[in-house]
């Protein structure tokens, strides 16, 4: 019950709405950034994490477990299956999720449930911190390019940029506080 390829339904109903959510978009981008400079084995694990989150992820909500994976949102058949009693549902833990085998010929037999996007991001960052690579990267939103943080000068520049952003936030907070007490 997936729509036939080229699958515009999957892209438009599955991926696009979620990418409009800043929390989710950041999570999706972090998977891509984590792949830069790592081994093929690590990339395979990242692909598996992508599969079980961006494509077939479930997430806890106050009123129950909801689907956020594009492969579920664009398949009413698999959406029903994922939320039924048939498949296994396990907590999203990147270290074990990354090595879970999967296939793309039938509905999944196991799904991973995140506590929230924020929690998934925190756990994912803890996972990527253990990956071996010769440099760290940062996505520069000003230039829309990827900065490779491989020298002390580049790190210092990032710290200065970060400090400027914190200063702006502090100023905004001060203005808000003054408005409330005025
Ligand atoms: Fe997809």
From TrEMBL:
- Biological process annotations from GO: aromatic amino acid metabolic process
State its cofactor.
Fe(2+)
Tell me the PANTHER family matching this sequence.
Answer: AROMATIC AMINO ACID HYDROXYLASE, TYROSINE 3-MONOOXYGENASE
Residue span, Biopterin-dependent aromatic amino acid hydroxylase family profile domain:
1-177
Locate the residues binding Fe cation. Answer: 10, 15, 55
Q: What InterPro entries does the database record attribute to this sequence?
A: ArAA_hydroxylase (IPR001273), ArAA_hydroxylase_Fe/CU_BS (IPR018301), ArAA_hydroxylase_sf (IPR036951), Aro-AA_hydroxylase_C_sf (IPR036329), Aromatic-AA_hydroxylase_C (IPR019774)
Q: Sorted alphabetically, which Gene3D superfamilies does this protein's record hold? A: Aromatic amino acid hydroxylase
Q: What is the protein name stated in its UniProt record?
A: Biopterin-dependent aromatic amino acid hydroxylase family profile domain-containing protein
UniProt KW keywords: Iron, Metal-binding, Monooxygenase, Oxidoreductase
| GO molecular function annotations of the record | iron ion binding; tyrosine 3-monooxygenase activity
GO CC annotation: axon; cytoplasm; perikaryon
Q: Give the family, as the similarity comment puts it.
A: Belongs to the biopterin-dependent aromatic amino acid hydroxylase family.
């Amino acid at each position: 019950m997936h729509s036939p390829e080229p699958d515009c339904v999957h892209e438009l109903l599955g991926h696009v709405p979620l990418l409009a959510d800043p929390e989710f978009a950041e999570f999706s981008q972090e998977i891509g950034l984590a792949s830069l400079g790592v081994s093929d084995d690590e990339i395979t694990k990242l692909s598996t994490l992508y599969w079980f989150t961006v494509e077939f992820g479930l997430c806890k909500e106050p009123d129950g477990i909801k689907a956020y994976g594009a492969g579920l949102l664009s398949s009413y058949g698999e959406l029903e299956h994922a939320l039924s009693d048939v498949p296994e549902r396990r907590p999203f833990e990147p270290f074990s999720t990354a090595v879970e085998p999967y296939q793309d010929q039938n509905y999944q037999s196991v799904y991973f449930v995140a506590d929230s996007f924020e929690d998934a991001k925190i756990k994912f960052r803890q996972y990527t911190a253990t990956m071996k690579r010769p440099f760290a990267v940062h996505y520069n939103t000003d230039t829309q390019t990827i900065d490779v943080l491989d020298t002390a000068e580049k790190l210092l520049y990032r710290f200065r940029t970060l400090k400027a952003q914190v200063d702006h936030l502090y100023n905004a907070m001060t203005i808000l506080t003054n408005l409330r007490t005025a």
